[in-house]
Amino acid sequence: MTARERIAGNVAGYVDDRTGAAKWMKKNLTKVFPDHWSFLLGEICLYSFIILLLSGTFLTFWFDPSQREVIYDGGYQPLSGLKMSAAYASTLHISFEVRGGLLMRQIHHWAALIFMVGIVVHLLRVYFTGAFRKPREFNWIIGVGLLTLGIVEGFLGYSLPDDLLSGTGIRIAEAIIQALPLVGSYIAFFAFGGTFPGEAFIPRIYTVHVLLLPGIFLALITVHLMLVWYQKHTQFPGPGRTEKNVVGYPLMPVYMAKAGGFFFIVFGVTAFLGAVASINPIWLYGPYTPGQISAGSQPDWYMGWLDGLVRMSPPLETHAFGHTISWNILIPGLILPGIMFTGLALYPFIESWATGDKREHHLLDRPRNTPNRTAIGVMALTFTVVALLNGGNDIIATTFHLTINQMMWFSRIGIVVLPPIAFVITKRLCLSLQRADRDLVLHGRETGRLVRMPNGEFTEIHEPISAEKAWTLTSHEQIAPLELPLADSAGVRRPGALKNKLRNRISRATAVAVSKATETERRELEGHH
Amino acid sequence: MSNEIEPIRDPGLPAHQHRQADTDPIAAQRAERQVAILFGLSAVGTLLLIYSYIFVKSDKFIFIPVLGNTNTQQLGLGMGMAVALFCIGAGAIHWAKTLMPDEEVIAQRHEFRSDDEDRAEFVKTVKSGAASAGLGRRPLIKRSLGVALGLSGLTPLLLLRDLGPLPKDNLQKTSWKAGTRLVTDPGDRPIRPEDLEIGAVAQTLPQLAPGEERTLNNIGKDAVLLIRLRPEEFNLTAERLSWTHEGIIAFSKICSHMGCAVALYEQQTKHLLCPCHQSTFDVTRAAKVIFGPAARPLPQLAITIDADGYLVAQQPFTEPIGPSFWERSS
Known about the structure:
The complex is a heterodimer of chains A (529) and B (330).
Chain A: H1 3-19, H2 21-28, E1 32-33, H3 40-60, E2 69-71, E3 83-85, H4 86-96, H5 101-128, H6 137-159, H7 164-178, H8 184-192, H9 201-231, E4 245-250, H10 251-276, H11 282-285, H12 301-312, E5 318-320, E6 323-325, H13 327-355, H14 371-391, H15 393-399, H16 404-443, E7 445-452, E8 458-463, H17 467-474, H18 497-511, H19 519-528
Antiparallel strand pairs in A: 1-4, 2-3, 5-6, 7-8
Helix pairs in contact in A: 3-5, 3-10, 4-5, 5-6, 5-10, 6-9, 6-13, 7-8, 12-13, 12-14, 14-16, 15-16, 16-17
Chain B: H1 20-23, H2 25-55, E1 61-64, E2 68-71, H3 72-98, E3 105-108, H4 116-133, H5 139-152, H6 154-159, E4 182-184, E5 201-206, H7 216-222, E6 224-228, H8 238-242, E7 248-252, E8 264-266, E9 271-273, E10 280-282, E11 288-291, E12 300-301, E13 303-305, E14 311-313
Antiparallel strand pairs in B: 1-2, 4-5, 5-6, 6-7, 7-12, 8-9, 9-10, 10-11, 13-14
Helix pairs in contact in B: 2-3
């Protein structure tokens, strides 16, 4: 035994004597994780979060979250002598005088964008592969919570510098609060410490941004990861992979090196973006004043869909009994997002109710094999993307020489018409892909080699696909639709018949599929050839 | 017939294929060198960062194709950091992929569900725990605890009351009074009608009393746009026409939708456009909404001139300015 091994042994022994960790570590250091590029998406979120904590801590050392008025006398000449808030002045100081300050600001902002992209793409991956099914519903809900908090945290973050652009964003947020029936004006006055903009809001959201929300994030992320660890990761179907096992590489050493290395890659890429790609150049916008604005005001992308919904809203307001209700703010700003996020959070329960499937699932679905779910997802995505496009309608209009009116009417009509069209097309595409899979298994792959038969006929040679591939394409389940009874044995209509009828109907729509190829069919065909 | 159908069978985990570095010691050595080079590059990145921090002046700029003129220090710090971090990651992953074992292993999953005995035991424990605490037998404790907990929940709500004052009539009123002069923003100069040419726009605020300080809170409510048209271009009621002066019309600059500054004026069409949500207001028709989500016109300020020939407000705004709120009556 070398000296080094002896020391390592002693340290390990010291820790184990006091914690009994050896037993747990022995088991978990060799824990198996399945490998797939899409499983890295969640990791990107985690690493961006760590980058946000590190770069954010750096920024707090210089940032002064105060709306007290100061006269700027820093290094950026064009704003010299201007009145501004200490928050804005200290952000300029970080950008121009603190060495590496601008880099850290840009890394922080880029990391926030990557964090949100990561969450959304991770969510799409989990949704379209059915990874949210039992037993992973809790983690799905935690994920939806993280997405929601991420949007709020991002908004608060870019509101802190108190520049003309972000101040306009706060103004809009204030208008949404103020639009709440009954309590709106009160909540707005409490939040802002009086009339907008006041001097209280930025110090307050600073505490929420750097303490309260990161704390909640940390707690939720910890539970999210512990559940992934405990429930073991899902895996894609393939040879040797079943609902009862998990096939992949051990944590020690492969995953430690890969995951640890990936953290540095994400950090490196974010640093590269911070180095070369300017983001939120607040010195160009100037300090906030409610009487001014810059054309082309845009929120960050994860708020864009919300702004897009507000922009396309029809001008509806109710004035009655001396009170005003602003539907043009409440519907796009609160009611629609409320419905969207509630639907998202409840989706696993809705699906299992509709299909009657209450079993555990650890093998992922290929999106084509669940046409209904895939089509619903694409439909929701289409809705959100139309809203997002409308959030940039002014930029799109000027870029492509359209009028703002054309853009707005495209969105107003498109947001109603396009999602159902997307649903139908996606469902058809999924079924076509299933048909293609079936052909591939039964007839083999096209080789591109054309052969002339003795009778003059040209034909393309097909080669059988491997047994592994054939299994991957056919291992999914095809569930028969529910047939819940509508009447009891005596032929009398049961209570709840309507509910059963609805479930049968949804279940039938869900079960639509091209029947998958079987060995029997394959053999029959071989007999013919 | 149906029970004769045989599905395609699982061929099982495919046999492991060795990599070059698994079998060829030279390839393994090459991989080792590559990893070391990546780690070495990372060190170079950190050196670049240190050099940029200490020796590069913060006011130096360098021209980089695509990026344009770039601050040298910022670029050096950023690129140094990017290379230092990225290469550690790339090295670690290359190491894992070429030299660490790549044989897939199979682990079994366990069922999450506890067995029936444990479940029954759990229910029993909870029940006996609750029973021994006597919650069911002592309703007085249960009810009084419920009341106490419920009431204590009010504490945080109550303590947050002092976050701000009550709105009172703050949302209803602005600083404009009868006779308040309109002054330019910026500059605070009073305005005569002849200062504005036809087609011109001016951003104005109420004149401050001596010693008064202008706050952002005031600007957020008081900002007013002046626009001068030819009087015959207006299409207004007699009352609203009397609120204009020689073709000069004044509107609140705070959007009636969500409070952004309505700052874009199109001279040809005489439309005002809010850049936030593109609500469009027709100046000739008392800022009637002709497009977008806003539901109300911009409030019009009645103006005239005072004895010295400067523009003044005839009266305060007759309705609240800015976005809607519950207590707004029209």
